[in-house]
Amino acid sequence: MADNFSKFSVQNEARTELHNALGLTGAEVSVNVLPAGASVPFVHSHKQNEEIYGVIEGEGIAYIDGQSVPIKAGDWLRVAPAAKRRFSAAQNSGIKYICIQAKANSLEEFTAADATIE
Amino acid sequence: MADNFSKFSVQNEARTELHNALGLTGAEVSVNVLPAGASVPFVHSHKQNEEIYGVIEGEGIAYIDGQSVPIKAGDWLRVAPAAKRRFSAAQNSGIKYICIQAKANSLEEFTAADATIE
């Protein structure tokens, strides 16, 4: 794996985890697919990581601390570490979504403040 | 914005930055669209942030430290902070991609190690 970049192609798996495939050091990213009517089979929270979810295709429901949040392609969610969450596809639609895990409060600067333009 | 989660719906803009829209603290995420034949108009690198790129639709080329890397929907890249990068759509296809910025080496634990299952 080259020092300056790495590349991985996600196939049509139920779940693909990119941390080891890409040698990530600042975040974990997973790509997840649930068929219509399916749910992640457990509720979970995190110790120190914020999660950022982005819906790529389809629609479903995010259950967060007992609240039902409808989600569809183009929707993004920030979920705080301690929130209890579970994701489901809609009854009549599958869903493809990415989940980013990054340590809460770890980002110090970003975009223009962190960039050098050539 | 609730403490436990926030939600934002990305429209069809050329670039949407989610940090402020979602109140992110562990990463910045942008959703970017380039029409066929278009390029980001500058080369850039980063001071401390790793970038993770995921192609959602279409295809293009990532130029990284002088190397041309063809990319298409489903492809993911890790780009080290110091690498000099520029993204282009293909001549005959637009591209939609997400870019995640997270501080290099900030992730301490992830997935099962960081999770509490209810």
List the helices and strands and how they pair.
The structure is a homodimer of 118-residue chains.
Chain A: E1 5-9, E2 15-17, H1 19-22, E3 28-34, E4 44-46, E5 49-64, E6 67-72, E7 75-79, E8 85-89, E9 95-103, E10 115-117
Antiparallel strand pairs in A: 2-3, 3-9, 5-6, 5-7, 5-8, 5-9
Strand content of chain A: over 45%
Computed CA radius of gyration of chain A, to the nearest angstrom: 16 Å
The second-level CATH architecture of the domain at 28-99 in chain A is Sandwich
What is the oligomer described by this structure?
A: homodimer
Walk me through this protein's architecture.
Two copies of one chain form a homodimer. The first copy, chain A, has a domain at 28-99: Jelly Rolls. Chain A has 118 residues and is mainly β. In chain A, strands 2, 3, 5, 6, 7, 8 and 9 form a seven-stranded antiparallel β-sheet that branches. Chain A is built from one helix and ten strands; from the N terminus they run ββαββββββββ. In chain A, a hairpin with a 2-residue loop joins β5 and β6 (67-72). The mean pLDDT of chain A is 97. The longest helix of chain A is centred in the N-terminal third of the chain and has 4 residues, at 19-22. Chain A starts with a strand and ends with a strand. Chains A and B meet through β1, α1, β3, β4 and β5 of A and β1, α1, β3, β4 and β5 of B.
